[in-house]
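haha ok so turns out i had the wrong file open the whole time. this is the CORRECT one, sorry everyone. sequence first:
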Amino acid sequence: SLPCPRRESDGVCVDSRPYLANVRVPLRDGLVVMRDGGGGLIGNRWDSNQIRNITGELVYGKSQASGTEYTYTINMTVLSNFSQTYLVAQEGMVAWCANGTIADPVSRFCRPANNASVLSLATATEEYLSELRSKGLAETFPDVSGTIGQGLDYYGVRSRPKWAGNSYGLNLDFPYTGTYRFQFASYCPPYGCGYALYRELQFDELEITVVPGTPFRLEFATAPPGKFENDFVIDPPVQVRTLDIAGNLCTNQDTFAVASVSPSARRLYGQTTPVIGGVATFPQLKMQGHRGTVYTLRFEIVIIGLSIEHSAFLVIPCEDVKPNSQNDGGGQCECMPGYTEDTRPLTSGGTGYTDDMSSVLSYPDLYKAVVYQPENYLRALKPYGVCVPCANGFYKPLPGAQNCTKCPLQMDTTWQAGAPRGDWTTLSGEFRPGHLGNHQQDACHCIVRREAVNGNAPLETYRLLPLEIFSCEECPRGGVCNGLPKQRILVDPGRWRTSSNMTVIYDCLNDKACLGGEESECAEGYSGNLCAVCAKGYAYPTMGGKNPPTCAKCNPFFVGAAVLLVQFIVQGIVIGTIFRIASRERNGSVGLCKTLLSHFQMMAVLKDLDLGWSPAQYLLFEMADKISTPSIRSFEVDCLLRWNHYQYTGYYSSMPAAIVLLSVLCYVAIRYNDIIRRKNEFFKKKFDLQELIAKERRAGHDTAEIQLALDEMKATPDFVALSLGAAAMMNRMGEQWEDEDGNIVRGPSEEEVAEMPATAYDLAFCFSLIMLYFSWITIIKYLLQLIRSRPFVDTGSFLIADLSLSVDAPLYTVWLAGLALFLAAYLVYMPYTLYNSLRNESDRLHWQSIKNRLGFMFQGLQPDYYWWEFAVMARKLGLVVIAVILPDQPLMAAYMSLFIIQAAIAAHLMCDPFYSGRQQSLEMTSLIVTLVAYHLGILLKSGGDSTQSDAVQFVFSSLQFVLNAGVMWRFFSCIFKDMLLETIKKKVADAKDQFLVEDDVRKDVVHGELLLMRPQIRGLHPRMADDLKNAFDDGRVRDTIAKAEMPDLWMKHVQLSVNLEMLRNSWRGVKKKTGQAALKYKGVQELANRRKREAVDKTRWKRRFNEAYGYGGGDEEE
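then structure:
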């Protein structure tokens, strides 16, 4: 090797041979020698006198690529850790060499670094010496230094022999290209160089140059972007550098680079470019690929076999340059299903949602090569178009720019599966509200819009089946539709439907009974149609249990039995009391009872009208119902009997038959008691006469008259015939006839028949009349309730009165036939028959038998208005018919009822039908209280919540109780006065009857005496006999004598006139015969028995008469 040349400027030794950059670059044959002050080589003269180290350090570096200069120290260096920076000088030198190989061995002066290298050097030296000996040049190995020759030999340093192995060296790790400066110095410490003149030697420097090594790899100086627009030149251009293993740019490379892509694109432009100074730049590189496809770009320098890849290189997908679009396969973007390019406003027929339409801002540098402000450009021009989601109510199943398809009528995309659609990820990956961007027709859902939106009124619909027809219907009132089929309609609480397959929803009669839901469930205790039928173990409470229908849990069995028994007792007491008053001889007060009964019957009708009554008002109406009608229906009785409406109707409809049976029993009982009473009176009187005869005989008195009276009682009367009363006397009234002895017998007068007491028939008829009047209105009500029915879709029609009974069943047809028959009997036949009886007896209403038989209907009325009670019955019938026919329209029913009440008041004021002012006032009071009750009900119903407060309910209830208490007070005051007056009249009448009885007895005695004279009259002159006979027959003689002030003188006058023609000796026989005739005449037993009951002893009176006027009392001749 040549000696190191020195740079003139600074004397630095410069190695002109470049070093190729590599992983580790060793210093080549760095030989450092020591010289003395004269420049001579030290050689090995000082080897034994000193141990001197020579160090080699990197002190400076300058990068070729960047021009940066570096100053290195021992702590900051690029020397390898394997470098030996100091060596001990031997033969006045050291050397740092690269490792040697057989092909490139190192010089003799290089130091072996390990034993193997030492052995290699020794072996090489031995071989070298052998070679020299063979040439005869030397026998021993010469010193390294002290030679003269070329190259290193010039310095007196031998380079041979060369050897292979590891040598101590100075190594650079991954050196950058540029210059490096090494400094070599020596310092010998006192312990090593005790006799050295110069401990520190003058240093020397070596500068080397590192140049790029062999190209090792490629590197992107400017890498391709991860995304780039299709068919646009990639900007900034892709730049690839060629680097050696140390990472230095191979500036010495000038060739060509090629770009390729995989998978294959449709076309690639600008893929070849020159490599200049180790750098390849692709200024025109662009690609036409498939949008959204991830490509791998490969850049390769073929001549050196290096390549580099870039992945992933994504051609900007359609969803980025044109959001919500997809590759159409031809390099263009088309809107994905669920999106459209129709950006017209919805009001102009658009189908896309444009309210939040925005620009594509994901890649703001996308169009920098095209415009200066790409954001503004995109926002303003939308160069690729826009894809907006299909608006609410639209869908689009296919890709493309076409408009979205509108959902079928009454369908939109707001709901899904019966619930509001939440946000969702569309096919484009966009997170949107669920009603936007739909791509399937199945996304169309029946509209459920519960509040007005954008001017659209609320609308709820349900889905018609089958689902494939995509048809909806508006939600029925009372249901909550969720857009699903009708089976999923949620019925509102308080409403009901027959089944989940039905869409007709009904308002429940009791809101709390219906729980609603899909299955229209009923609350506990409720069942059936409208949840208005009480389940087993439940019944309607007595107080307002039907309006609305409320079900409560039943009480134990015995409670119902006790309540039913109490009701029967109370109703029996009411009927018995009225019958007791009606059967009295003076029964005028029964009219007041009838008026009060009618009042309570009208009050009872009010409980069938749902006018918002309070429990207290219902209590009043139930009390009125139980005391004025035969109603047994109550909570406890319902629990006991568990009857339906048919059974209750059958019970009430059969009451007339029961009434007839009870009337027959009543007739038999009264008739039997009357016969027994007459028989007891007869035998008691007979016994009393026998006792009197015995008493008079013991006293020594004459008993002929008493015996005669006793003889008259030998024949027992027909007590059955005697109890027939006025009915048996009517045919003989006003008549006269001759008995078998030829005596004239006069029939009873009308006054006598009118005064005859009522018979068993009359009283039994009165009892049946009261019972019918008591039950008539209830019977009619239950029969009329069979008329009104309510239809239900799918299940048929049911009775409004009992929604558990179907009117489509054959049993209902039977009941309809019975209804016609019963109504004809109760509404036509019975009232007409009763009216006809009253009309036929209208001129005999003063008769005692008629008053007891029919007086319940006309007592208290003026004679011309005997029919007035039928008008009252018509009024009550009208109220009942309205309440039964219009239960679902309570206000209409109340107003119609008001009209009837007002008409009744007007008729009452105009006709003034009652002869008693007290009964007139009671009737008016009843009508006014009823009128007020209807007005209160209307106020409660029409007032809504404002009238349902506790205070209002208390006031109204209190008012009704006070008013009805006023009716009761008026009734009791009137009936007290009437009965007091009747009692006084009865006493006066009894006293008058006493006098009349005495007159009648006196007339009978006179008549008897005159009859004794009838045989004598037959012997008189014909003209005189006829006149006297006629006078006898028409009663003129009897009345004249009986009414005269001196009846004895009149009688004596008659007797004297008769005795002029008669013989005195025939008196006894004639008297006996005429006595028998008189007894036969008395065969009309009713008159005789009545007179006996008057407690006037006719025999005693006759005795007093005879004693006073000289008849009888003596012997037979007298």
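The longest strand covers residues 200-211.
again sry for the mixup
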